Amino acid sequence: MSSAPAAASPKLRAKGRPADIIFQGISTFAGISILVMLGLVAIFLVVQSIPAFGPDFDVKGTSNFLEYVGPLAFGTVWASFLAMIMAVPVAIGIALFITHFAPRKLASTIGFVIDLLAAVPSVVFGLWGANVLAGFMKPAYAWLSDNLGFIPLFAGTASGTGRTILTASIVLAVMVLPIITALSREVFLQTPRLHEEASLALGATRWEMIKMAVLPFGASGIVSASILGLGRALGETMAIAMVLSPSLVVSFILTSGTNPSTIASNIALSFPEAHGNEVSALIATGLVLFIITILVNGLARWLLGRNPRTGGAK
């Protein structure tokens, strides 16, 4: 005999405690407020930048907004790209040394120095770059221009002051290095110990163990750390403003005295004296920087999603 199906039992729910309800409400409000603030910032930038797209645009000798923002956007991306090329490999190397090679006391000391370096204000890095690093790099720029001038990156006459886009990129690299190193170090420390011991037990060398167990496990963390560092580099203001003079040029030359400026530094240097349409133009360049940052973060998430090792990373 077949019995009638039993009635579905009601879904059991845990009794809500006041503390849980309050905490859930606060967390929900915090999460929604982030989206609201981001939307308000976007609305402000769009509304205030509308006059910059009018036909009577005339800022610093440019006749339209694209002619004005193009060199600044190029300089922002170019300087950040150079900084990341220099910073990411060094940061990963330092993180691996701290977690897998250095003695405990030395690793602790280096970790403390890295964390301390992250707390140094950007204006200090700007002073160091303009007054120390620029003068130190002048002989190197002269040598590169004289001996490797056939390469487009080092063509032309070397800068007499040392304040070039390469100097600014080195400063940016030093600034983002602590962020990438600290986050990569924490990711590498989370590698399952059994995976490392299994690799070594099967005859792998230390480097092979790192290549097969540590780096694949920490790939998503490395990308996330790099994106955070890139965000710092894209939005950096004072360090670039103190090293480079504002100019609207597009140039890949690393040692020349004529260098592209960045959006953030141009806003910082030009906004106090701006008036009329120039204010709208500067706010519109801020909107472009806002869009670049969102695109970079979206690209990083897309790359993580395509990687089978990190596709499930959150």
UniProtKB/TrEMBL annotation:
Per UniProt, residues of the ABC transmembrane type-1 domain are: 73-300
Query: Origin, by domain of life?
Result: Bacteria
Q: Where found?
A: Cell membrane
**GO biological process assignments:** phosphate ion transport
Fetch the InterPro entries from UniProt: MetI-like, MetI-like_sf, Phosphate_PstC, Phosphate_Transport_Permease
Membrane-topology annotation of the record:
Multi-pass membrane protein
Check the record and name the SUPFAM superfamilies matching this protein. MetI-like
Keywords, in A-Z order: Cell membrane, Membrane, Phosphate transport, Transmembrane, Transmembrane helix, Transport
Does the UniProt entry include the keyword Membrane?
yes
| NCBIfam families, sorted | phosphate_pstC
Annotated family:
Belongs to the binding-protein-dependent transport system permease family. CysTW subfamily.
Question: Which PANTHER family does this UniProt record tie to the protein?
Answer: PHOSPHATE TRANSPORT SYSTEM PERMEASE PROTEIN PST, PHOSPHATE TRANSPORT SYSTEM PERMEASE PROTEIN PSTC
Protein function = Part of the binding-protein-dependent transport system for phosphate; probably responsible for the translocation of the substrate across the membrane.
This protein is called what? Phosphate transport system permease protein
**Native source species:** Agrococcus casei LMG 22410
